[in-house]
Amino acid sequence: MSKICEVCGKKPVSGNIISHSGKKASRWWYPNIQKIRVKLPNGQVKRIKVCTRCIKAGKIQKAVS
After folding, report:
1. How deeply is 49 buried, as exposed, middle or buried, from its count of CB atoms within 10 A (0-12, 13-18, 19+)?
2. How far apart, in whole angstroms, are the C-alpha atoms of residue 25 and residue 8?
3. CA–CA separation, 50 and 7 (whole Å)
4. Measured over all CA atoms, what is the biggest interatomic distance in the chain, rounded to whole angstroms?
5. pLDDT in tens, 19-51
6. CA-CA distance, 36 to 46, in Å (whole number)?
């Protein structure tokens, strides 16, 4: 499953875990992606992958079951 938000395009970023001794190991930070039913502007209902930041910001309109 793709870990990219279909609204804002947020995707995983990489970086390092740095231990107390300064040793580095690579790691990934993933966005919190949810599959939700969304009502599109043309009235169509579709299931898309959206990050929780977009859901909280009201960038999408949830479809009522």
Report:
1. middle
2. 29
3. 6
4. 56
5. 999 999 999 999 999 999 999 989 899 999 999
6. 8
HSE-up of 57 (CA within 13 Å, CB side)? 8
pTM of the predicted model as reported, rounded to 2 decimal places? 0.82
AA letter at 42:
N
CA distance 12 to 40: 25
> 2 pLDDT band (50/70/90 cuts)?
confident
Domains and CATH numbers, the chain: 1-65 (2.30.170.40)
Cα separation values, 56 from 10, 47, 52, 60, 64, Å = 15, 17, 6, 9, 17
